[in-house]
Design goal:
two-stranded parallel ribbon; single chain; 9 helices; globular; binds zinc ion; 6-stranded parallel sheet
Length: about 270
């Protein structure tokens, strides 16, 4: 029998509807919230503490900063202030190793690492930050979003290392938010907020709201323009939106949300 395309469409819509319903029934965000959002920035860049945290503090929202010890130690007073304002400090490695396919990191390429040498530098970063900021880092973001060491048949995933040493690991340039009832906390997705206006971010929020997901936004610098920069105008508008109309959204640092998810699953 030839299938009626309308029938197929109706079945698909029903299936999608049931999935969302099932997700809603099995996982509950705190205080009846519809979804969660975490604002995250990487690399411990100066603009995050000079430009970003004053804006976040003005609206009273807490973010997660995935840092490296070197840039933090260069602007220690600002980073200490960031900690005392209640923001989360998380691990982004010691030397930011990525694939040597990026010419700027060829002498520090993931292809040349072993799991042991990589683990050493992640733990060293923990020690350095604990010494400088008095913070124990429990969350991690993969530099360049890459999670392997070695090459070819000798390639190994370092996701298990992150699962062993951290509560969560965030990737980068992903296409979908996290399903709290299913996602692997060692590979939570991060969607880009650099260079985007409020309308683009708002459509990501609308999408995550429909599926009651956890949207983790990820950026680098915070300022007016330039590459890898979260626009201050977008950030102000987003935080105003949270205050005025986004009251069904739980806005919290990654560590808080991942702890909540872990507890809910247990
Ligand atoms: Zn980075």
């Amino acid at each position: 029998m030839k299938k009626n395309p309308f029938f197929t469409l109706i079945v698909l819509v029903c299936l999608l509807g049931f999935k969302t319903k099932a997700q809603q029934d099995t996982f509950k965000w705190p205080e009846g919230k519809t979804m969660a959002i975490s604002l995250t920035w990487d690399d411990g860049r100066e603009s995050q503490v000079k430009t970003g945290t004053p804006i976040l503090d003005k609206y009273g929202y807490k973010a997660t900063f995935y840092v490296l010890p070197d840039p933090v130690e260069k602007h220690l007073i600002d980073w200490k202030k960031t900690v005392s304002s209640g923001h989360e400090i998380a691990n982004h490695s010691l030397t930011h190793p990525c694939s040597g396919n990026f010419p700027w990191t060829r002498s520090n390429a993931l292809e040349d690492y072993t799991l042991a040498s990589l683990e050493n530098q992640l733990l060293e970063a923990n020690t350095r930050i604990e010494k400088s900021l008095g913070v124990k880092m429990t969350e991690f973001a993969y530099p360049c979003g890459q999670s392997f060491v070695g090459r070819g048949t000798n390639t190994q995933s370092y996701v298990p290392l992150i699962a062993k040493n951290f509560k969560s690991g965030r990737t980068w340039l992903d296409e979908a938010p996290n399903d709290p009832s299913y996602c692997d906390l060692s590979q939570i997705t991060g969607m880009e907020m650099d260079g985007k206006n409020f309308e683009s971010i708002f459509s990501l929020i609308e999408n995550a709201r429909k599926s009651h997901s956890w949207l983790v936004l990820a950026g680098h610098d915070i300022g007016e323009g330039g590459p890898q920069t979260t626009q201050t105008a977008m950030l102000e508008q987003l935080l105003r939106y949270f205050k005025e109309s986004g009251t069904d959204i739980w806005v919290a640092p990654v560590g808080e949300v991942s702890t909540y998810i872990e507890k809910s699953r247990n």
